Amino acid sequence: MNPESCPALVDCGGRMEFHGAEMSRTWVKLGSTAKKGDATLTLAEPVTGWKASDRVVIVSTNRQSKHPDKKTFREHAHDLTETEERIIREVSGSQLTLDAPLAFAHIVEGRYRGEVANLSRNVIVESADPAKARGHTMFHRESSGAIHYAEFRHLGKEGVLGRYSIHFHLVRDTMRGASVIGASIWDSGNRWITIHGTDHLVVRDCVGYKSVGHGFFLEDGTEVFNVLDRNLAIQAEGGKPLPKQVLPYDHNDGAGFWWANSLNTFTHNVAAECDEYGYRFDAVESPDFSLTLNVPKPDGERHRVDIRTLPFVRFEGNEAHTQRRHAFNFGGFSAEARNRENQGKSEGVAGIGPDERHPFVIKDYLAWDVHWALHPRPPCVMLDGMEAAHSHYALWFANYDRHAYRGIKLTDITVNPDFQPIGAQPKPAEYPGKLQPVDDLPPSSVITHVLKQKDGTLLVRGTTADNGEVKQVLVNDKPAHETAANLSQWEITLPMTGKLTACAKDAAGNVEMRPHERVP
Predict the structure, then answer these.
(1) Do 62 and 112 contact (CB within 8 A), yes or no?
(2) For residue 447, what are the CA distances in angstroms to 20, 153, 494, 516, 517?
(3) Could you count the other beta carbons within 10 Å of the beta carbon of residue 53?
(4) Do 59 and 116 meet the contact criterion of CB atoms below 8 Å apart?
């Protein structure tokens, strides 16, 4: 074997499971301001599963720079950082007692508040000698398994393609039902979780802390119907492009969340202190590389399509704060700006996007204490709720070609709220303007848990994603019970059976075209 492939845990068609003790939450918001010198934190909600001796991260709420006015970028996210690591001495409901006082204040001002994340798990995967050889983990096609509440630390081979801390490699939908829930991935030499040529994967409640390169990463532009929900990305730091990487235009410069195909679900995630971007959608056509790729449709068939034209399944409730530079770079830099910076080399989506009936929809987006809050370049965008505060720029080089905006709240924008746009910013009274959105995308479900109960029944849990309202989820023709809004999470108790089938229907009448079938 190539030495660069070892050491490793690799599943090639077998079953590989990592399951640790569950937590009510792996990360939570602060409940009140923690002052410099405090050794006790108040959380926004009580936590269970956290214990004395656990390692926690208290995320910075102050975007440091080389000068007090914050207009000069520090070189890396970790320079002058106010993110702090501590060990828990005692847990009591929503109160944490730490092993040492805080060196910095961590503020709470309404919605603007930092996070406290628990990195410790009782199931651990780590490199035996990180300084000598870092390990990696990988699932291949036709494998099975899941990762729940496990800790992956000191993994990832820096500068080596395909050798990541957690890697789903060209799986497509053969692992539908797999999930990464409650994991901690930290001190990674090469990303946190890479979703490569893989569909219908659920990544929820994970904490990523310190990576080289992008953190939560969709690799080749064909990945669809994956769900990234309530994950926390802290300090994804810039690396170098990897040798022979699939997408030649990716600079690997440190995004908390990075993708080239938007037909996925991103909900309630937070990115903080990443080197270049909190969120980054990047798709660049060139004479040497075509963005017309072979992508699965809702019925499972694959077709060739320009991936720039595919809208989100759902993008809602996401947040970026304390960002050194971009909170959300959506669709690339403007040609004008990049021409000045890159000696004529143009980047971005080049005015390509979905049509008026299937626009990009961004809901309830929050950015604070950042340099650039949102850089929206594609055409056909509906921005339904955005709050930006304590930022230099709110909307930066926006392309207002068939955009519709409402619910925009801007506070303390110190340089320019709408910098050098193309066209005029849309008026809320005209929403949705030139757009005529229709819902013809069916829901997509994944059965994530099948738990045998003492009485012989099965407790079945799952996730459903949709661009609109989910009306019902049927499991073996019986309605599941909602455990998170819009049936995004659900459960049902059923008699023992030889096969489970989950099928969803949305309020527009779209019925899931490929129900998820799973053998208990």
Answers:
(1) no
(2) 19, 28, 13, 7, 8
(3) 9
(4) yes
Burial classification of residue 117, based on how many CB atoms lie within 10 Å of its CB (0-12 exposed, 13-18 middle, 19 or more buried): buried
Residue 171: pLDDT above 60?
yes
Is residue 359 within 8 A of residue 311, CB to CB? The reply is: yes
Least trusted range by pLDDT, from 63-67, 89-93, 474-478: 63-67
Q: What share of the chain is helix, strand, coil (3-state, %, to 5)?
A: 5, 45, 50
What Å distances lie between residue 238 and 92, 242, 307, CA to CA?
A: 38, 12, 25
CA 461, CA 444: separation in Å to the nearest integer?
Answer: 14
Residue 115 has pLDDT above 70, yes or no: yes
Backbone angles phi, psi at 181, to 5 degrees: -125, 130
The model's pTM: 0.97
Q: What pLDDT is stored for residue 69 in this prediction? A: 72
Contact present, 505 and 465 (Cβ < 8 Å): no
The kind and range of the H/E element at 491 are strand 489-494
pLDDT at 94: 97
Cβ atoms of 495 and 457 closer than 8 Å: yes
CA atoms within 13 A on the CB side of 231: 30
Residue ranges of the alpha helices (H) in 375-414?
none
Alpha-helix residue ranges (DSSP H) falling in 328-446: 335-341
Torsion angle defined by CA atoms of residues 90, 91, 95 and 99, in that order, rounded to the nearest 10 degrees: 30
> For 230, left (φ over 0), alpha (ψ -120 to 50), or beta?
left
In this structure, which amino acid lies at residue 441? L
- pLDDT per position as a tens digit, 242-279: 999 999 999 999 999 999 999 999 999 999 999 999 99
Q: How many CB atoms lie within 10 A of CB 248?
A: 11
Mean pLDDT in the chain? 95
Asked whether the beta carbons of 417 and 397 are under 8 A apart, the reply is no
pLDDT digits (tens, 9 = 90+) for 444-501: 999 999 999 999 999 999 999 999 999 999 999 999 999 999 999 999 999 999 999 9
- Give, as one character, the DSSP assignment of residue 308: G
- Residue 231 CA to residue 182 CA, distance in Å, equals 9
Please give the domain boundaries of the chain with CATH numbers for all domains.
Answer: 444-518 (2.60.40)
Q: What are the DSSP calls for 431-486, one per residue? A: TTTT------PPPEEEEEEEEE-TTS-EEEEEEEE-SS-EEEEEETTEEPEEEEGG
Whether the predicted pLDDT of 426 surpasses 50: yes
